[in-house]
TrEMBL record:
Belongs to the ABC transporter superfamily. Keywords: ATP-binding, Nucleotide-binding, Transport. GO terms for molecular function: ATP binding; ATP hydrolysis activity. The lineage of its organism: Bacteria, Bacillati, Actinomycetota, Actinomycetes, Streptosporangiales. Residues 4-240 form the ABC transporter domain. This is ABC transporter ATP-binding protein. It comes from Herbidospora galbida. It comes from the Bacteria. It holds the Pfam family ABC_tran. PANTHER family: D,D-DIPEPTIDE TRANSPORT ATP-BINDING PROTEIN DDPF-RELATED (PTHR43776:SF7), TRANSPORT ATP-BINDING PROTEIN (PTHR43776). GO terms for biological process: peptide transport; transmembrane transport.
Length: 310
């Protein structure tokens, strides 16, 4: 059973096709990394999966059921967001206790509030939890603030966490601790995670599967080890070439900027920046690159790439 899924999802902002047809599944207890450069549409897809943006086409499913937009409050108990900037996520006027208890009060969760807040802080690695109750965000380190944000999500006992760049604002020494925490939460609580990131090194360290996004579409998807050691799409190869932990070749410098999502090229959307196309392809493949609109990649567990190259 999939914990959260996109089925043919499209998101438009005027003429801009931010998400242009995506099938993606996050299985129960699975960690999926959604990777790509800024402007590729990954945050718009995450917002659609969270119910913050309603797709112009396609459906979002939670536990194999279509999302009911009339019951978003109930849905958000099951799917919680962890933002990249803990300083911006926390109200500087609220104590740690108030920040974590806010979700309980909004959703009117029964039980002893103090005990539930303490349990969430302990799960997030802030022990003893009572020591943090009356602290304010400015009194905490960056890693501790991110743990408070995670505790605020955990207090509602969700099934899925959507983590948007969860360690990008943290020091290198703290990044590993937060990643280890997310892995422990998956192991202990059976949580599913969608990790939105531009960092393939992070995906290598945490994810079971990777989905690489470019200009509103997933262009390669599959098992993390398979995609990152034997990439099939030229875009994935370019991203990997600049990751120190993984790179086995000279960096591939892509020419030009990410195309305008309101003017997506015909044929392969990566063609204007593709090193393989620029270097020259056989006439038949070049024609397919220029004219053939590749289908949306399936959401199954196989290794797929939206590319005409063998």
């Amino acid at each position: 059973m999939s914990a959260l899924a996109a089925r043919g999802v499209r998101v438009r902002f005027g003429a801009a096709r931010a998400v242009d047809g995506v099938d993606l599944e996050i299985g129960s207890g699975e960690i999926v990394a959604l990777v790509g450069e800024s402007g590729c549409g990954k945050s718009s897809l995450a917002r659609a999966l969270l119910g913050l943006v309603r797709p112009s086409d396609g459906t979002v499913e939670c536990a194999d059921r279509p999302l009911d937009y009339r019951r978003l409050k109930a849905f958000r108990r099951h799917v919680q967001l962890v933002l990249q900037d803990p300083s911006g996520s926390l109200n500087p006027r609220h104590t740690v206790y108030e920040a974590v208890a806010e979700g309980l009060r909004i959703h009117k969760v029964p039980g002893d509030e103090r005990e539930l807040v303490a349990a969430a802080l302990a799960k997030a690695g802030l022990r003893p939890p009572e020591r943090f109750f009356l602290r304010y965000p400015h009194e905490l380190s960056g890693g501790q603030r991110q743990r408070v944000v995670i505790a605020g999500a955990l207090v509602l006992e969700p099934d899925v966490l959507v983590a948007d760049e969860p360690v990008s604002s943290l020091d290198a020494s703290v990044r590993g601790e937060i990643l280890a925490l997310l892995l422990r939460l998956r192991a202990e609580l059976g949580l599913s995670l969608l990790v939105v990131t531009h960092d393939l090194g992070l995906a290598w360290n945490i994810a079971d599967r990777v989905a690489v996004m470019y200009l509103g579409r997933i262009v390669e998807t599959g098992d993390t080890a398979e995609v990152l050691t034997a990439p099939r799409h030229p875009y994935t190869k370019a991203l990997l070439s600049v990751v120190p932990e993984i790179a086995r070749q000279e960096p591939i410098v892509l020419k030009g900027e990410t195309p305008d999502p309101s003017r997506i090229p015909a044929g392969c959307r990566f063609r204007p920046r593709c090193p393989a196309y620029a270097a020259g392809l056989p006439a038949e493949l070049a024609e397919r690159c220029e004219k053939e609109s590749l289908p949306v990649l399936p959401a199954d567990r196989g290794h797929h790439a939206a590319c005409v190259l063998p």
